[in-house]
């Protein structure tokens, strides 16, 4: 054991040193990234600094994302032998406030479950897998850190690569197939409902991870702008890497912070983003795995048409609730809801008085929506069309 530790100290990767370059400081009055989140309190976020080493292993090299209760960082794994190519990971550092801490513990447990459920299942290749986890302390509390493979752009960014801000069918079909493979794994092997499928939470992998070394070097040569306030730095994310289409890999479902186990007691609490909400959720009824299928149908519509089927115009006005307007949009597309569905929802009284691929996902009744398993054999997907370079031969071998 002592010899192993000694050899690791001698031969493991050497940490980078901060470059002696000028840094662009942002005005302290301007809100930066996570400061825009509702009820933001700086003490809830761990004050990550570039080039610090977390857990005696991971050296932070740049910030790549943020959310309402976490920040995400690209880090170099110092346990890689120094004569090998640098190894990079993404670290999600969760906030420490009570609600987020409870959510972070839940997210960690469910992500561990997803990682271990069935490593041999092909769909596991299309969900984010936990590589490591640890905790760090700050004056604001304890922060759970989760380590993943570093991914690149989300689907909303992929849309911008195409004319009209829409993903063409010869690209959307294979993307859809891989998302469904991931959903099949979550539903049938893990018995997990994601509940928050949107273009932010589906990211593309890198076909050549060595690109990450270029990202790290770019940070050293051109340090990210940052805001310094009360002894902490708040950095701008470096999340646009200028990749070409042939450098993009498979789609990966991420972010299980709102995921739940599907085989427990019935669920009826509100879930899903506005515009993506399944009708049984709006009506206060029980929901299950098929809520993800509805969610997927709305997402695919948005990716192909450039807008969701139930988007409410931003300049629209009215006294009704968001769910009321959303249900009105559903009715305009699908027609009146079945009476038996209305009888199931506790919130029904608030809103009512008494053959293509997406149509199989956008059904009023949860049980009428096709499962991920069945959708994978739908003719729309089996006729995938032209080969697209973002999906390599290994990916096709996995999902054929």
From TrEMBL:
Gene3D superfamilies named among the record's database cross-references: Phosphorylase Kinase, domain 1, Transferase(Phosphotransferase) domain 1
Give a GO molecular function annotation for the protein: ATP binding
Protein origin, superkingdom: Eukaryota
- Please state every residue range assigned to the domain named Protein kinase: 58-381
Binding residues for ATP, per the UniProt record?
Answer: 92
Give the E.C. number(s).
2.7.11.1
Which Pfam family name is an example for this entry?
Pkinase
Q: What protein name applies here?
A: non-specific serine/threonine protein kinase
């Amino acid at each position: 054991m002592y010899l192993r530790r000694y050899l690791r100290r001698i031969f493991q990767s050497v940490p980078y040193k901060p470059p002696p370059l000028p840094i662009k400081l942002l005005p302290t009055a301007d809100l930066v990234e996570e400061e825009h989140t509702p009820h933001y309190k700086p003490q809830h976020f761990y004050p990550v600094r570039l080039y610090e080493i977390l857990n005696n292993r991971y050296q932070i090299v740049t910030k790549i994302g943020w959310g309402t209760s976490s920040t995400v960082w690209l880090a170099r794994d110092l346990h890689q032998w120094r004569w090998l190519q640098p190894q990079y990971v993404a670290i999600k550092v969760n906030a420490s406030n009570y609600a987020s801490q409870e959510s972070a513990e839940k997210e960690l447990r469910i992500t561990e479950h997803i990682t271990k459920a069935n490593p041999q299942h092909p769909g596991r290749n299309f969900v984010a897998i936990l590589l490591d986890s640890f905790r760090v302390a700050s004056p604001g509390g304890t922060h759970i850190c989760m380590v993943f493979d570093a991914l690149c752009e989300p689907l909303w960014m992929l849309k911008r690569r195409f004319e009209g801000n829409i993903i063409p069918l010869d690209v959307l079909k294979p993307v859809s197939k891989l998302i469904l493979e991931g959903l099949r794994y979550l539903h049938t092997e893990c018995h997990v409902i994601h509940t928050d499928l949107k273009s932010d939470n589906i990211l593309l992998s890198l076909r050549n991870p060595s690109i990450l070394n270029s990202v790290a070097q770019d940070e050293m040569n051109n340090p990210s702008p940052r805001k310094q306030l009360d002894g902490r730095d708040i950095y701008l994310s470096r999340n646009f890497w200028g990749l070409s289409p042939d450098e993009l890999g498979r789609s990966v479902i991420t972010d299980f912070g709102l995921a739940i186990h599907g085989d427990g007691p019935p669920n009826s609490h509100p879930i899903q983003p506005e515009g993506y909400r399944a009708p049984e959720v709006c009506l206060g009824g029980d929901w299950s795995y098929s809520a993800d299928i509805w969610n997927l149908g709305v997402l695919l519509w948005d990716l192909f048409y450039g807008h969701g089927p139930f988007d409410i115009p931003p300049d629209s006005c009215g006294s009704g609730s968001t769910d009321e307007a959303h249900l009105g949009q559903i009715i305009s597309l699908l027609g009146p809801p079945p009476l038996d569905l209305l009888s199931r929802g506790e919130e029904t009284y608030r809103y009512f008085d008494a053959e293509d691929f997406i149509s199989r996902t956008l059904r009023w009744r949860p049980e009428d929506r096709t499962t991920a398993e069945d959708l994978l054999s739908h003719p729309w997907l089996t006729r995938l069309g032209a080969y697209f370079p973002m999906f390599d031969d290994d990916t096709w071998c996995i999902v054929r």
